[in-house]
């Protein structure tokens, strides 16, 4: 619900001229109808390019990774070197690499950050590069995703296609419902009865009152409660809503927000909500689920899977969380996610943007996509039942045992006719199941879904971090009972005074301009 952004560090980065090295555009003899032909080896000396990846689990340091690297180099002419960083340190690592002059050609960036970086002259427009070296990207990435990364007619990056349209949802332990002879709730009132039963009915069967009706997952706290429950309380869920004065406004300003917060406070007082939620981290939330203590979870679609039910099912094989949408006084639909929220950008300070684009484009073919995702077919993986990927490893269905996995993958395409997660592993298949389940829930497009905001142009830009911090601090205080929920109007009044009103005006100005 908060306007999130990263620190503005771009102006401190030394911009140097792009060093473009012309390489021959590859042609291909591939027969796959989705490709345009790019499997012929690229001639000339390979060009070293460096990218930053925020998922260090992909770095397995095996000989198989070197083999994939060498095939990529042969196919694209790019000597791809990936630098890894832990997710929480990735933005800092990126900024340090850029400001210190360390080689870095490409990295993932939120669309908001990409707009800011483009305005500051840090990243390239990809229009010409795509026209010359990106035929497969232009053909196979969905147009809606490219639209989300297009700013002032300039394509700022290769969009990462959103795999799930409604990513956050309330998930309920259906095996606990069955054990307590309860039905899936339809309304918020029904859900409260379920919460009481999960708290007092000993659903884990150990004779102790040690279960909790509600927790959050995916590292979320109060913000995740908002994402998941706002659809049942507010007219536009966590999206901005249009007031009677014709202006769009943040959800915290709608009267129903106070009603929702009052309900959270009530649930906390009744002991329904896990008391450690506010200070919890994703690992601790996963641990609570794995220990068979959480009846319902407000989380992303995947928040109950890895290290959670993945562990729990070893002792409770029938454990299952199923997403649900309740009926309340709100819109009763989940906000649809945009086709892309982030993209791989190419920096101006670059050894060869052409080589990077060829590397990106090769991944937009089925052949290249398989290579960067799973390695070499027959050596690193095979196709098993229903053409699902199985690893050539000690356990062919255990992703953690794979000797190569996704180290060089930067292009994410939801290939038509194929499962989004194509490996024959419990985790991948659970992802696909959850995706199907949340896609069946009712959803809506927010009123400003097609507007690409440039927050760096806002008069309130320098205050956005403080405004977000203020919201977060006050919400925690209200949730913990330090401030009465009845004081919410005073909290809103101060937020408006410290820059919130200017932020509303800034956003409405761009919203109105986009409608013309």
Give the overall form. globular
Structural class: alpha/beta
Number of strands: 17
Biggest sheet layout: 5 strands, mixed
Q: Residue share in helices? A: 25-40%
Q: Unreliable segments (pLDDT under 50, ≥5 consecutive)? A: 2-41
Radius of gyration based on Cα positions: 24 Å
Strand order across the largest sheet: 2-1-3-14-6
Distance between the termini: 26 Å
Supply database-style keywords:
516 residues; alpha/beta; 5-stranded mixed β-sheet; 17 helices; 17 strands; globular; disordered N terminus
Can you tell me about this structure?
The chain has 516 residues and is of the alpha/beta class. It has helices at residues 63-76, 90-100, 111-119, 127-133, 135-140, 143-148, 174-179, 188-200, 222-229, 255-269, 282-290, 305-312, 353-363, 366-374, 426-439, 464-479, 488-515, and strands at residues 47-53, 78-84, 106-110, 150-151, 154-155, 158-161, 168-173, 212-216, 241-242, 248-249, 294-300, 321-324, 334-335, 340-346, 381-383, 389-391, 443-444. The strands form six sheets. The protein has a five-stranded mixed sheet. The protein has a four-stranded mixed sheet with strand order 8-11-7-12. Strands 4-5 form a two-stranded antiparallel ribbon. Strand 1, helix 1 (63-76) and strand 2 form a beta-alpha-beta unit. Helix 1 packs across helix 13 (353-363) and helix 16 crosses helix 17. Residues 2-41 have low confidence and may be disordered.
């Amino acid at each position: 619900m908060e306007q999130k952004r990263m620190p503005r560090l771009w102006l401190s980065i030394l911009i140097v001229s792009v060093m473009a090295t012309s390489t021959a555009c590859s042609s291909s003899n591939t027969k796959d109808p989705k490709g345009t032909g790019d499997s012929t080896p690229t001639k000339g000396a390979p060009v070293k390019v460096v990218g930053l990846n925020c998922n260090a689990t992909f770095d397995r340091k095996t000989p198989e990774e070197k083999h994939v690297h060498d095939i990529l180099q042969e196919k694209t002419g790019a000597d791809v070197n990936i630098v890894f960083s832990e997710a929480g340190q990735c933005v800092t690592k990126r900024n340090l690499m850029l400001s210190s002059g360390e080689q870095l050609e490409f990295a993932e960036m939120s669309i908001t950050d990409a707009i800011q970086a483009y305005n500051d002259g840090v990243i390239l427009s990809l229009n010409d590069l795509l026209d010359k070296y990106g035929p497969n990207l232009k053909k196979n990435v969905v147009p809606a995703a490219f639209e989300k990364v297009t700013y002032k007619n300039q394509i700022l990056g290769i969009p990462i296609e959103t795999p799930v349209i409604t990513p956050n949802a309330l998930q309920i332990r259906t095996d606990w419902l069955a054990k307590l002879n309860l039905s899936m709730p339809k309304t918020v009132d029904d859900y409260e009865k379920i919460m009481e039963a999960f708290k007092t009915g000993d659903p884990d069967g150990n004779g102790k009152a040690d279960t909790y009706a509600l927790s959050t997952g995916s590292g979320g706290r109060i913000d995740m409660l908002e994402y998941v429950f706002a659809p049942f309380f507010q007219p536009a869920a966590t999206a901005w809503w249009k007031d009677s004065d014709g202006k769009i406004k943040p959800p915290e300003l709608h009267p129903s927000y106070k009603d929702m917060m009052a309900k959270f406070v009530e649930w906390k007082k009744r002991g329904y909500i896990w008391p450690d939620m506010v200070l919890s981290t994703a690992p601790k939330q996963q641990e609570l689920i794995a220990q068979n203590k959480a009846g319902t979870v407000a989380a992303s679609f995947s928040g109950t899977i890895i290290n959670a039910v993945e562990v729990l099912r070893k002792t409770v094989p029938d454990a299952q969380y199923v997403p649900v949408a309740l009926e309340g006084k709100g819109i009763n639909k989940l906000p649809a996610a945009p086709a892309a929220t982030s993209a791989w950008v190419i920096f101006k300070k670059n050894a060869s943007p052409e080589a990077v684009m060829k590397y990106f484009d090769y991944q937009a073919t089925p052949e290249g996509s398989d290579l960067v995702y799973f390695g070499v077919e027959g050596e690193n993986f095979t196709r098993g039942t229903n053409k699902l990927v199985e690893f050539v490893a000690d356990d062919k269905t255990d992703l953690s045992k794979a000797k190569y996995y996704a180290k060089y993958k930067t292009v994410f395409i939801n290939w038509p006719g194929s499962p989004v997660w194509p490996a024959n592993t419990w985790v991948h298949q659970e992802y696909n199941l959850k995706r199907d389940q949340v896609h069946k829930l009712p959803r809506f497009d927010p009123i400003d879904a097609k507007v690409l905001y440039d927050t760096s142009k806002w008069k309130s830009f320098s205050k956005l971090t403080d405004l977000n911090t203020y919201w977060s601090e006050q919400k925690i205080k209200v949730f913990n009972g330090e401030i009465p929920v009845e004081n919410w109007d005073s909290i809103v009044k101060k937020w408006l005074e410290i820059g919130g009103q200017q932020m509303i005006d800034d956003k409405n100005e761009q919203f109105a301009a986009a409608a013309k």
